[in-house]
Every structure is written in C-alpha cells, then in structure tokens.
Amino acid sequence: MKNNFALRLVLLLGLLTLSACNLPRQPAAAPTLDSAAVATIAAATLKAIGAQTPLTTPTQPPAATASPSPSATFSAPLITLSENANCRSGPGENYPIIAVFKKGEQPAPIGRSPGFWIVTSAKGDCWLAQQFSSASGSLESLPTAVIPPSPTPNLPAAPSGLRYSFTCAYGGGAEVTLSWQDAASGEDGYRVYRDGALLGQLAPNVAQYSDSVPGFSGVFIYRVEAFNLTGGAPAQVTVNLNCQ
What we know:
Number of strands: 14
Largest sheet: 4 strands, antiparallel
Radius of gyration: 55 Å
Structural class: alpha+beta
Number of helices: 2
Strand content: 35-45%
Shape: rod-shaped
C-alpha cells in the first residue's frame, strides 16, 4: 500500500513537470534548484507514506483445548453377609468347609468367580456363594479366580447300629426291615446287599430299608454301605429268620 502511494506521487510530479515544459515561456535565467524546497517535499512524502494505515492481519481463533475425560472414582469392594454361610475351598458343596461366617460379617474380598466371592478368613482364603451376601464398591477391580480342581472326597463313615426286625407273612415269607444310624457325611448314598446280591441303592441320609424274603426260615447276611467316589464303607448284620 505504501509503495502504491509513493508511485502515484512520483507520477503526479512527473506530469506536473511535463505540463510545465509545454507552456510558452520567455527566455529567462537558468533555474536555480531550491534544495530546501526539495527537502520539504521529500519529507512530506515520507511522512505521508508513514501515515498510511497498515494492513490488518486477521486474528486466528485460539486452538481448542481438549478437556480431560473424568476418571471413575474407585471405592474399595465391600462384602456383607446377609445370612450365615459356609466358606469352602472351592465353588461347591463337594469342597471342604474352611470357615463359617455369620450374618453381618464383612470378610475382605480378594477375587471373584461366577456366583462366588473369594474372601480371606482366619483359616485361609475361601469361596463364598454370592447368594448369601450383598456387595458394593468397585467390584470390577477384583481379579477373576481360577477354579481349583475338585477334591477327592474322603471315604464316608459306615452306618452305625445296624439292626433288623421281621414280620412273618400269612401263607409264607417274611418282611425284613433294616435300620441304622446315618453316621456319614459327604456320602453319595447307600447300597443294600443280601447274601452278596445288590438289592437297591438309596439316596444320601436314608437310614432304613425293607426287604421281602420268600420262605418261612433261613439265615441271611445283609450288608449296608455308605458310598461316594472314593469307595464304600459297609456294615453287616446276620438275620436268623424263623416263621414256622
């Protein structure tokens, strides 16, 4: 902009000079260059150039600053027993009991697995069924536990106090009733044998069985055993039948 103004000023001075040259003039003395006037014109020209308004540089908008995403607030996981519960060495009743928690207790959680919390106890870490507790806090921070291998069950205790009674049937035969005390824990059931032949298999915690015997008399050996995956623990009784 400044250069254009200066150029126009020079052209105007040139035109004025040419116009002056075309006017008729009378012989005169050689013109004298007024150095002061030249200096005044030059100074005025520079001042006019300096007074020009500079071009405005467009202002760039400030760069947007990314706002930090809010971080989730961590709170310690908390487990509260809603009722009394056994805490076992693994996720199921086939695992031995490590500790027993009472309603309202708050064992420290250290892991999780579908349906179970892994917590600490005075006797070691154990698995607690989630259905017996309420939970809060940052539960997702708990690591996922590896399910331990299923334990080999102990051999159940044999039936105790095995005894018998019988009633003779009219026309022949008898009904022999066996009864015992269920001393086993962790049994899968009971098996009843007469003279080595399997008569039937019973559910866990059953303590009685009835057998129909043909004939009026005889000696029969009955065996009742509690069993699980490890094996069977039998009890035996001899029945002296005489219905004559």
